[in-house]
């Protein structure tokens, strides 16, 4: 799922992101999921921001939640953290942190 965010930035096709968020997702996650409705300059900032992002390490699972860490560029040490929640057998974005 997180790779889909990065792939959307690479292809500039942001329409598929609106289905990634959980109904009770936090604002940080909703910004990602609603980017296809944003102004063109905001879309470009999103694309530039996630264009070179990569998942770093393994997904950590805990019951119905999971955490995925990523970096904005391959040689960057500061990580991003995506928190997912499982509902009705599907995984959704719950929170995004830098």
Describe this protein's structure.
By secondary structure, this protein is of the alpha+beta class. Strands 1, 2, 3, 4 and 5 form a 5-stranded antiparallel beta sheet that branches. Strand 2 (60-62) and strand 3 form a beta hairpin. 29% of the residues lie in helices and 30% in strands. The chain has helices at 2-11, 27-33, 40-50, and strands spanning 54-55, 60-62, 65-71, 79-87, 90-97. The protein contains 3 helices and 5 strands; from the N terminus they run H-H-H-E-E-E-E-E.
Rg estimate, integer Å = 13 Å
The N- and C-terminal alpha carbons lie at a distance of: 18 Å
Can you count the helices?
3
**Main pleated sheet:** 5 strands, antiparallel
Shape: globular
Work out the oligomeric state of the chains in this entry: single chain
């Amino acid at each position: 799922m997180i790779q889909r965010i990065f792939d959307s930035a690479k292809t500039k096709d942001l329409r598929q992101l609106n289905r990634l968020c959980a109904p009770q997702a936090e604002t940080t996650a909703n910004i990602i999921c609603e980017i296809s409705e944003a102004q063109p300059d905001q879309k470009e900032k999103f694309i530039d921001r996630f264009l070179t992002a990569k998942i770093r390490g393994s997904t950590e699972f805990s019951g119905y939640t999971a955490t995925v860490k990523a970096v904005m560029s391959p040689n960057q040490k500061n990580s991003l953290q995506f928190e997912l929640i499982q509902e009705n057998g599907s995984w959704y974005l719950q929170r995004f942190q830098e």
